[in-house]
Structure formats: structure tokens, C-alpha cells
Design goal:
The complex is a heterotrimer of chains A (287), B (279) and C (292). Chain A has 287 residues and is an alpha/beta fold. Chain A is built from 12 helices and 10 strands. Helix content of chain A is 43%, strand content 22%. Chain B is mainly alpha-helical. Chain B is built from 11 helices and 2 strands; from the N terminus they run αααααββαααααα. Classes of the chains: A alpha/beta (287), B mainly alpha (279), C alpha/beta (292).
């Protein structure tokens, strides 16, 4: 079942003025329930505008957005309900923290949903736990935490709304390797545990291929492709041509192919590269 | 939204107006405002209006921008019009009389039109200064015009530096406000509806992160300035020097003559529709 | 060539305050660090957040002063207040967030800021500003307003503002952390240009190993101490040690490390893509050839 469906969505900035610019151009797209989809594209490719359509922060100039089969811009839909269903975590999300304590900050979303005190309490604690925020941190001021911790608090603030779809814009941007790992691995665990549909926007192909089952590549406001990771990598030459980076290991394997040894076009992790090399050597022994 | 505000923006160009010495432009801008308030009849107002249009044509700033600059002050104009319309009592019969409470006189209509036009001319004319003068030149000119005050220990350089930094960070902070508002909306914040108190309260989740970030920026900026050997106005030079030349003196002379003419106009045709006004 | 920066046994601590503002203890951020940077070198300082790398960088131009030990810049002690502007002119500093370093509303005015502070003649300022903007390839944007620029472009403007002072060394504190891949590439290209073509010493503070891999020398810092100090190849071959202090290794090195674990006899320091691909090619052809 598809949880997100976009039909011919176009978004124009400053429509009707001489500054008019198309950010998203006639995009049609479906995302299945429970899918972990990576979104990649360079700055200005329209990916940030696209994800803001999914929770109704941006209204398409043309076209329709369906969440759970419901047109979110039809008259009888409360747009705030859509935002609780499709939780969006912005880039540098720690900049949204404002409460005196971590606990209060995480409960801001659930409170806006009008939930009961007990329900809020359960959700805040569950969300904090899934993001690795210990009990003792809950009473601290969010401004006293480290960068990685702040980021996870901001994430917990969205997770506490129990959205069906979790949309993350560069959740690991600017963090050091420890911070990156602590954020990304927890997102992945959360996905496995609750089966929530996840859209992860990232500039790092390495991060995307580690977790995503499907990849959505955006280019110049259009969908370049939206397919399983292996299929996307089968088009690695085109991906490089539109100015995107592939993992370093893929570049090494490509260089090897130029020299005359082809280990396959679906290599984007070190693990797979190693397997293929060992396989190749084993085959050589058989010959 | 916030991004539409054009007041205070600079549109680079190479017209005569752009090239005038910014110190002269500030003085002339002040003169323009005085002129506008000196013009006490329609003829004077029309004359000022024509003068302003001429300047705009010379500057090459498009009409669209002019209209855009008016948009944010429309409520102010509307309020002024309404006040004048209802509170000006004329000498003759009122045009409209509802129970002796609401009375509209012909004088009320003429005055409110006059005031509306005056405010519009004020904004349009003053905008021309910022449209054609880079913020740097503007603050530079203010610093130099005020420099005699340094002798009285008035912090002229610091004031100018503050203005520069404020101008530099306005677009950054507008962008940041938009972002934080979106982030809180994504958490179900209701920023658009409800009464005034409710709206003010709903803004807390926007204002606090904005202040936190502004303080952080201020800290980092201070550090960066220190690294670039900033030590106040003492011994500082400027890359761009302000040069006044013949063109500036001519412009000043034109302005002065025009001003004199306007005063004459007031003396010889003192009444033309406007007996008195509520400023 | 001599050392442009010489840090000897520096110790730096932050006081830990209780709620009333009384000092209860001290956190040691730098613990007896000694480091010399020879003129002309491209040095990368690698470490995770909180390792002390940024604190160390701030000692290099007298923003922070060591509590014990000393830092000298081109022979000048950073504690000597009378030389502080000479020191800051010799060692320029670029920070993480490009937005928070740009003072002026026009690109070229910003590039001129430092020179104006130093009281340089207007004509000379103009000349040096143009030159600096050309070096970072931002000359055609000289009349733009900073908020119209991309992150990478803004950071290059910030760099221009520093190199206009003609420093002999630039310390960059995570200059790419907030940029997209394109911006990061632009900055790395600029850094290499400054170092190779203009002979400026570069100290790059970073947690990106692919950036550190491009340096002449890498210093790994952890818990306020220097853990490793060597050429990139030798640093990255120590996979387990790097991982234990929260750092990544490039995938090239990781592949070799994994192959070695599977029992193959491969070198552990094939850092660069080309040499890695070449080695793999030789290994695979030789291996298959042998068996045939």
C-alpha cells in the first residue's frame, strides 16, 4: 500500500512575478508503507522543497499530494493533522529547541496534538529512549547538551508524535563520526522496530546506501530515478554526470573496470567489494 | 511574506543618482522630507511628486519596486485616511451624517487624500535613497556627517559599525526565522490563528531559538572580527573614499532652487483646497 | 625552512562552575601539547568533537593563551600584547560558519575589512582586495551581497578577507563542516591552491578523514593529547586505533584492512584510490594468472 503519493506536483517560487523559478517540476511519485527511502540530489535540486510538500508546509502550485490516500489540500482535511502524520525533521534541527528542559521540549509536539498527560509522558519517555537520551538528561536544559545529543533530542521531539512517515533532512549534517553514527544507527533501529516509513535526505551516498532500500535521485527539480539501490547504481555513470558523488569504494571499482577487471556495477559498500574480490580470486583458482 | 519587504534594500546601478556622493544624498533626502511637509497645497504636492518621478526616471529604478515598497505601509495609510475622514470637521454641511456620530465633510475627504499622497511620497522618496545607495556608503556617510560629534565623545564609529552589522544580518535572520517557524509548524505549532495573546504566546517557540542563535552568531562574529584585527575606529582607513564633485554641488543647487520655488508657491497660492490639516 | 608556529608544552583548562558561579573543578582540554608547524606545510589536525582540536587552533593566533607552556608565531610570543596585531596578521583564522564571519553587506567591502582595520592606504587596499578575491575565484561576485551566495562561495569570501592581510599561515577551524559536497570541494581546492601556489602554511582542523588524507602531515588529537603525528598513509593504516578514538578511515584503507583479515597478504597503507585500484588489478591478474 502506498502511504505517499504525489501526482504531477509542480512548485514555483514567486509565481506570477519576473522572479518566477521552478523548484519542483511535474513530479509523480509513490512511496510504499514501511519503505526506507534515501533522497539524494545537490543543493537546488528541489529535494528540500519536495519534502516540505509531504507535510503541507508548502502547497503545490500544480498537482496533488496524497498521504494515506487522502488529498491533503482538500477542504475537509486539517493540515495540522497531516503534520502529525508526516513528521518532518529539518536540517540542523537542534536550532528548534526552546524549552527549559529536554522533557518539555520533546513534549511540545504531543502537547500540540492535544493528548492526555499520561499519553504524553509515555510517548516522551519512549521517544527519548529510542533516541538514546537517558532519564537523567530529560531534566537538563537542552542548551547544555553536546551537538549530537541536541540533534537526537530534536529527533525525539518529532518521534514522540508517532508519525506514520518520518522525513529527515540531513539528520547527520555537521556532526563528527561518533555523532553521525549515534544518530543514523538509531534511526535505522527505530525503522526496524516500528516499521515506520522513512525518507532520509542526505548528501552522503555512503550513508544512504548503508540504510536505504530504495533511492530517490533528484536533479533540477525532477525525479531522476526512484528505484532499489542496486538499480540506481547500475546507472553510476549517469549519476556522476549529474554531479553527484558515489562512495569512494565505487570509484575504486570503476577504476578497476577501466583497467579491465569488472567486478560488477552494484558495488557500493566495502563488504560487497571484499566479497567480489574474494569470489573473483576463487573463480580464478577453478579455471 | 517576510522576504517581500524591499525597504532598505539596495539595487546596484550606475545612474547619476547612484553616483552622487552619499553625504549629499542624505542631506538632500532630509531636505526632501522638509519640502514635503512645506508643501501645503495640491500644486506644491504635485510639484514635489513630479520632481520625485524625475529622480526615479534618472535613477533607473523600476516602477514595480516603487509599488512594492508601498505594500507594507498600506495599513498605515489606511488608518491615516480613516482618521482624517471621520475627525475632520468642515464648515459647511456634512456629506454624510449618521446619527450625529459619524459625519463626513468634503474637507475630510480632501485632507485624507492629501495625507495619503503625502505619506506615499514620503516613503517612495526616502526609499530612493536606500535603493540607490549601498548600505556601506550610507553608514559611511552617516559616520562622516556625524563625525563632529566625536569631539563630544559620541560613539559615531561604533554606531555606524552597528548599523552595518545590523544591515548585514537582517536577511540572514529573516531566513532563519522562516526556517524556525517551519520547524515548529512541523511540530504542530499554530502560529496563524487565535487572538493576540494566543498568537504572542505561540511565538515563544520561535523567538527563543532565534535569540539563542543570534547570541551565538554575535559571539562568533566578534571572534572573527578580532582575528581580522578590528580595534574600533581609531586609525582605520576606508577602501572606498567618498568624493564630492561638481555633480554633487549642482544637484544640491537644483534641490535648493526647487525648495525656494515651493516656498514661493506656498506664499502666492496659500489656499487650494486645504484649509487646515491634522498632521 | 623554520617553524612558523611553535607550541611548547601547552596546557589549557576550562573552569567548571556550580550554580552559584563558584569554581568546583577544572576540565583539562589541552594536556601538555607540543607541536611545531614548519613554514609551507599543509597540516591537518584530526579529532572528534571535544578532543581539544579547536581549542588548540585558537592558541595559534593568540585568541586563547596557554595556562602553562608557550606558543610562538614567527618568533613572537602570543602572550606579548604589543605584538598581537602582528601575530594575527601572520596567522589568519577561518571558522566553521561562513555566515558569522562576514561583516559587510558587499563582498569586496568584507574582503577589505581587515586592511581597513590595519590602516592600509585606500589604493593599496583596493589592489590587495582584488588580488585576494581573484585568488579564491570570487572576483566576479565582488559587488554581490553575501546572502545571495552559496555556502561554499561565502566561505571563500571569508578566506579572501583573511588572505588580503597576506598572512604566512592560515588556520582553518572545520571550514567545510556546514557545506554541501560541492562547497567542500571548492574549499579543499582553494586550500590546496593557497598552499601549493602561494606557499601559505595551512593548518586544517577537521573531522573528515578524506580531507585530512590530502594534507602533507596529519596530527591526531584525542582527549587533549597528541595521539599520532605522521604522513597520512601511516596515520590511516592504523585502523583499529583510529576507530577506538571515534574516527573513520577511508574506504580504500578499510577494504585493505578487511582483505587482510580474510587472510590475504595485502599492504595496509593504500590510501589513494588510484594506487588502491592499481594494486587490486595487479593482485587479481597475478593471482588468476598463477592459478592458470
Amino acid at each position: 500500500m502506498s502511504v505517499i503519493e504525489l501526482k504531477n506536483v509542480t512548485y514555483k517560487y514567486s509565481a506570477g512575478t519576473p522572479f518566477e523559478a521552478v523548484a519542483v517540476n511535474n513530479v509523480s511519485l509513490t512511496v510504499e508503507k514501511g519503505e526506507f527511502c534515501g533522497i539524494i540530489g545537490h543543493t537546488g535540486s528541489g529535494k528540500s522543497t519536495l519534502i516540505q510538500h509531504l507535510n503541507g508546509l508548502v502547497k503545490p502550485t500544480l498537482g496533488e499530494v496524497y498521504i494515506d490516500g487522502e488529498n491533503i489540500w482538500s477542504k475537509d482535511v486539517d493540515i495540522r493533522e497531516v503534520r502529525f502524520k508526516a513528521g518532518l525533521v529539518f536540517q540542523y534541527s537542534e536550532h528548534q529547541l526552546f524549552e527549559e528542559t529536554v522533557y518539555k521540549d520533546i513534549s511540545y509536539g504531543p502537547k500540540n496534538m492535544g493528548l492526555s498527560e499520561e499519553e504524553i509522558d509515555t510517548r516522551v519517555r519512549a521517544a527519548a529512549e529510542s533516541m538514546g537520551i537517558s532519564e537523567e538528561l530529560l531534566e537538563r536544559s537542552p542548551f547544555d547538551l553536546s551537538g549530537g545529543q541536541k540533534r537526537r533530542v530534536a529527533l525525539a521531539g518529532i518521534i514522540a508524535m508517532k508519525p506514520e512517515i518520518l522525513i529527515l533532512d540531513e539528520p547527520a549534517a555537521g556532526l563528527d563520526p561518533i555523532g553521525r553514527e549515534s544518530v543514523l544507527s538509531r534511526i535505522s533501529e527505530y525503522h526496524k522496530k516500528y516499521g515506520t516509513t522513512i525518507l532520509l535526505v542526505s548528501h552522503s551516498m555512503e550513508d544512504i546506501v548503508r540504510f536505504a532500500e530504495k533511492v530517490l535521485v533528484m536533479n533540477k527539480g525532477e525525479v531522476f530515478c526512484h528505484s532499489p539501490t542496486d538499480e540506481v547504481f547500475a546507472r553510476q555513470d549517469e549519476i556522476i554526470k549529474i554531479g553527484l558523488d558515489v562512495p569512494q569504494i565505487t570509484r575504486v571499482i570503476m577504476k578497476l573496470r577501466q583497467k579491465g577487471i569488472d567486478l560488477g556495477s552494484d558495488i557500493y559498500t566495502v563488504e560487497r567489494a571484499k566479497e567480489r574480490i574474494l569470489e573473483y580470486m576463487a573463480k580464478g583458482r577453478i579455471c | 511574506m517576510l522576504k517581500d519587504i524591499t525597504i532598505g534594500q539596495f539595487f546596484p546601478g550606475n545612474s547619476l543618482i547612484h553616483r552622487l556622493d552619499s553625504r549629499f544624498k542624505i542631506i538632500m533626502d532630509i531636505a526632501y522630507v522638509v519640502m514635503l511637509f512645506t508643501a501645503s497645497n495640491y500644486l506644491g504636492l504635485v510639484a514635489v511628486g513630479l520632481f520625485m518621478i524625475l529622480l526615479y526616471i534618472m535613477s533607473g529604478v523600476g516602477l514595480r519596486l516603487v509599488l512594492k515598497s508601498l505594500r507594507p505601509i498600506m495599513p498605515l495609510i489606511a488608518i491615516t485616511c480613516i482618521l482624517n475622514l471621520f475627525f475632520i470637521r468642515g464648515s459647511g454641511e456634512p456629506l454624510l451624517n449618521i446619527g450625529g456620530v459619524i459625519m463626513i465633510y468634503p474637507e475630510g475627504i480632501t485632507t485624507s487624500i492629501f495625507m495619503a499622497v503625502r505619506i506615499m511620497f514620503l516613503i517612495i522618496g526616502m526609499s530612493l535613497l536606500t535603493y540607490t545607495t549601498s548600505p556601506i556608503e550610507l553608514t559611511d556617510a552617516i559616520e562622516r556627517l556625524l563625525s563632529p560629534l566625536k569631539k563630544l565623545h559620541f560613539p559615531v564609529h561604533e554606531l555606524a559599525m552597528m548599523m552595518t552589522i545590523a544591515l548585514r544580518f537582517i536577511p540572514t535572520l529573516i531566513e532563519e526565522t522562516d526556517k524556525i517557524m517551519s520547524a515548529q509548524k512541523a511540530r504542530g505549532a499554530n502560529l496563524d490563528t487565535g487572538g493576540l495573546m494566543k498568537k504572542a504566546k505561540a511565538l515563544i517557540p520561535v523567538m527563543i531559538p532565534l535569540f539563542v542563535s543570534a547570541f551565538k552568531r554575535a559571539n562568533e562574529l566578534a571572534l572573527a572580527m578580532e582575528c581580522r584585527c578590528y580595534r574600533g575606529g581609531e586609525g582605520r582607513t576606508r577602501m572606498k573614499q567618498l568624493h564630492s564633485g561638481l555633480k554633487d554641488y549642482i544637484a544640491l543647487a537644483v534641490m535648493a532652487l526647487f525648495f525656494a520655488e515651493l516656498i514661493l508657491l506656498n506664499i502666492y497660492i496659500p489656499y487650494l483646497g486645504i484649509p487646515y490639516m491634522v498632521p | 625552512m623554520g617553524d612558523i608556529i611553535k607550541a611548547e608544552n601547552i596546557i589549557f583548562e576550562y573552569p567548571v562552575l556550580d550554580e552559584d558561579g563558584n569554581e568546583v573543578s577544572r576540565t583539562r582540554v589541552l594536556d601538555d601539547v607540543s607541536l611545531c608547524v614548519p613554514e609551507g606545510q599543509f597540516l591537518a589536525v584530526l579529532g572528534h568533537n571535544g578532543s581539544g582540536k579547536s581549542t588548540l587552533a585558537k592558541h595559534f593566533n593568540g585568541i586563547l593563551l596557554p595556562m602553562s607552556g608557550s606558543v610562538t608565531v614567527d618568533g613572537m610570543d602570543t602572550k606579548d600584547e604589543s605584538r598581537i596585531y602582528d601575530i594575527r596578521q601572520t596567522v589568519g583564522m577561518v571558522f566553521q560558519n561562513p555566515d558569522n564571519q562576514i561583516v559587510a553587506t558587499i563582498v569586496e567591502e568584507d574582503a577589505a575589512f581587515a586592511l581597513e582595520n590595519l590602516g592600509v592606504e585606500p589604493k593599496e587596499i583596493r589592489r590587495r582586495v582584488d588580488e585576494a578575491l581573484k585568488t579564491v575565484d570570487m572576483y566576479e561576485y565582488r559587488e554581490h551581497s553575501p546572502h545571495q551566495l552559496s555556502g561554499g562561495q561565502k566561505q571563500r569570501v571569508a578566506i579572501a578577507g583573511i588572505i588580503a592581510m597576506r598572512p604566512r599561515c592560515i588556520v582553518m577551524d572545520e571550514p567545510t563542516a556546514m557545506l554541501d559536497p560541492k562547497g567542500r570541494k571548492e574549499i579543499m581546492k582553494t586550500i590546496k591552491l593557497l598552499n601549493r601556489e602561494h606557499g601559505i602554511t595551512v593548518v586544517l582542523i577537521t573531522h573528515y578523514m578524506e580531507e585530512a588524507a590530502q594534507a602533507d602531515r596529519v596530527v591526531v588529537i584525542d582527549k587533549g593529547k597528541i595521539l599520532l603525528d605522521d604522513v597520512p598513509k601511516k596515520i590511516f593504516s592504523q585502523v583499529e586505533l583510529l576507530r577506538s578514538v571515534g574516527l573513520d578511515v577511508p574506504q580504500t584503507i578499510e577494504l585493505m584492512y578487511e582483505l587482510k583479515k580474510s587472510g590475504l597478504d595485502v599492504p595496509d597503507d593504500l590510501l589513494y584510490e588510484e594506487e588502491c585500484a592499481e594494486y587490486l588489478f595487479d593482485m587479481l591478474t597475478a593471482d588468476v594468472g598463477d592459478k592458470k
